[in-house]
């Protein structure tokens, strides 16, 4: 498993990327409305109650787009890197992972890792909606983890500090 193709980067899948034009159109239309209302406010000194609504819509469109572009799960030889908009970047070494499992229904399944301290951490964009071959990707991640976690390491049985998946 020294081949670099085993290390993957998981980002927004096709279902999410299809929404980019909708976000762009919504942001542009509400942005134009906001600019028009700001000009009216500057000229007449009277603010429209819709201005606050336009600000909220434009801000949420921008925040949603930036969040999807920033969030990712990246596997390397040393660790799994989890990037989120507000949570920053977290790196979890392979040997610090107790288990890699799935949660949720088959239609909305998500991969989560269980950290040594017993914390369950969801991996962004490693889910059945973004990945057409979800079960294969879970198997690949588990195989990579088993190979990289260190020689002779066996996971603790459930009930010894490790939550059940």
Alpha carbon gap, first and last residue:
27 Å
* Strand arrangement in the largest pleated sheet: 1-2-3-4
Largest sheet: 4 strands, antiparallel
List unreliable stretches of 5+ residues: 158-165
Provide the structure class.
alpha+beta
Q: What would you report as the Rg, rounded to the nearest angstrom?
A: 21 Å
Q: Outline, from the CA principal axes?
A: elongated
DSSP E strands, number: 7
Strand fraction: 15-25%
Give the topology string: H per helix, E per strand.
EHHHEEEEEEH
Q: Which percent range fits the helix content?
A: 25-40%
Provide mean pLDDT, rounded.
80
State the helix count: 4
What does this protein look like?
The protein is of the alpha+beta class. The chain is built from 4 helices and 7 strands, in the order E-H-H-H-E-E-E-E-E-E-H. The chain has helices spanning 14-17, 20-44, 50-70, 134-148, and strands spanning 9-10, 72-75, 79-84, 88-93, 97-103, 110-115, 120-127. The strands form 2 sheets. The chain has a 4-stranded antiparallel beta sheet with strand order 1-2-3-4. It has a 3-stranded antiparallel beta sheet with strand order 5-6-7, with helices on one face. Strand 2 (72-75) and strand 3 form a beta hairpin. Helix 2 (20-44) runs antiparallel to helix 3 (50-70). The chain starts with 8 loop residues before the first strand and ends in a 17-residue tail after the last helix.
């Amino acid at each position: 498993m020294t081949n670099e193709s085993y290390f993957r980067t998981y980002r927004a899948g096709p279902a999410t990327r299809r929404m980019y034009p909708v976000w762009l159109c919504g942001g542009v239309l509400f942005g134009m409305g906001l600019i028009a209302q700001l000009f009216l406010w500057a000229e007449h000194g009277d603010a429209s109650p819709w201005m606050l609504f336009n600000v909220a819509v434009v801000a949420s469109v921008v925040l949603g787009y930036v969040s999807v572009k920033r969030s990712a799960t990246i596997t390397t030889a040393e660790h799994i890197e989890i990037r989120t908009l507000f949570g920053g970047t977290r790196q979890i070494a392979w040997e610090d992972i107790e288990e890699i499992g799935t949660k949720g229904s088959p239609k909305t399944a998500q991969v989560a890792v269980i950290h040594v301290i017993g914390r369950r951490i969801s991996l962004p964009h490693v889910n059945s909606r973004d990945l057409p071959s979800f079960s294969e990707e879970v198997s690949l991640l588990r195989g990579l983890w088993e190979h990289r976690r260190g020689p002779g390491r066996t996971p603790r049985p459930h009930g010894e500090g490790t939550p059940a998946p």
